[in-house]
Amino acid sequence: VDLDTARQKLEEFIPHVKNISDSSIRKMAGRDLARFKEFKKQGIAVRFGRFTQKENDQIRKNIEEFLSITGIDSAEKLLFTSRYPEDKETIHSLKAEHSFCEKISEGIPRPWRLVYYRARKMFDPNNYKGRYTKEEKEKLKKYHTMHGNDWKKISELMSRSNLSVAMKFSEIKSAINYGPWTNEEIQKLKHAVKEAMKRKLEKENAGCLSSLEQSNEDVWVDRETLCQQLPWSEIETKVGTRYWRQCKQKWNSILTKKMSKGQQFIHKDIKALQVKIALIKRLYEMKVEDASEVNWEEISHALGGVPRTYVQAKLYKLKVSCVPFWQKKTFSEIMDFIVEYKLPEFEKKL
Questions:
Q1: CA 7 → CA 1, 17, 150, 283, 322, distances in Å?
Q2: Which of 13, 68, 136, 209 could form a disulfide linkage to 132, CB 3.0–4.6 angstroms apart?
């Protein structure tokens, strides 16, 4: 199938296909198109976003079965073959012989590459090494001086994941301010977000926004776009005195205040209890099995138009503080516990 035809066929399943590179389109046409059509026959739509517990379990099952079929002795060898140069050729042959791409994504209505990235995150032992020691931080600075932003190389030297070393370096590369934000820092943050948003709109709407970069006027952006992922490492650099996570948290707090017309939801007593109760009831009424199935926009609107990140943070604090062993429970089990044991307590207190 030629590139244009492949893109056209995939558009039925992936609305944002126009933003995907040509090389990825070719791979998806070969590895995903037939799968997507089969899922459509079953009435199942292609999914994006956060993986559900059911999908994570299916990935584990697929990996275990592939290891059993091929005799490869660990998921790390299968998914991080470059770490085992002596076995590399054999593992690649086994992957090709037993259709690794198809097998790993079996039963999961997502693009193969997203399933592969998720599996790598789940099975990489370097993702679960805890806090960086002082010695590791010094090594990270040293390796960055030697190799720049080659995070793959640095991750191999540090035995940490690519994302881990990149994010940690962003935190320690310069003096970071941990106190209250100054007006100057807030203005820098707003300006950096505005510029990032302009470029995003320019890219997505090249025809009608070709002069946007030269414009000094503000651009109207809908709430959903404002709450979407932004290039935080770039924004961090422009702010200069805060690392990316601080920038993200501050921006979300600004959105919360603006979108709720100045109302302060995060305070004590009556309002805080009302918000908790409303959040619990809305989530429970949805009867979803996994957090990825929650309509966060609906809930954020019900709580006064606050950003979805505020709602998600509220739920996280609720389950951590109220649900014992919440890490071992499914989303529906967590909600059942909160409704049975905590909701009556909050309503009585109110």
A1: 10, 7, 32, 37, 48
A2: 136
Q: How far apart are alpha carbons 142 and 173 in whole angstroms? A: 11
Highest mean pLDDT among 7-11, 112-116, 291-295, 300-304: 112-116
Q: At what angle do helices 232-239 and 162-172 cross, to 10 degrees?
A: 10
Q: How confident is the model at residue 238, as a pLDDT?
A: 87
From 178-182, 227-231, 307-311, the region with the lowest mean pLDDT: 227-231
Q: Which of residues 231 and 128 earns the better pLDDT score? A: 231
Centroid of chain to Cα 168? 17
Q: What are phi and psi of 112, to 5 degrees?
A: -55, -45
The span from the first CA to the last CA of the chain, in angstroms, equals: 63
State whether CATH 1.10.1060 applies to domain 134-173.
no
Amino acid code (one letter) for 142: K
